[in-house]
Amino acid sequence: MLTGIINAFHSIKNILPTNNNQLSKIYLRIHAFKIKVNQTQHQLSKERLKIAIEQLGNNTIETSLAIISDLEQIAQNHPQYHWIIMDILTTFIRENASYIPEENVTSNLSTKVRVDIQAALTVIARRDVSKDPKNEQLDLSHTDIRGANLNKANLEQANLYQANLAGANLREANLAGAILSAANLEGTNLYLANLEGAILSAASLKGANLEAANLHCASLYLVRLHGAVLNDAILDGANLREAKFSE
Question: pLDDT digits over 65-77, tens only?
Answer without folding.
Answer: 999 999 999 999 8
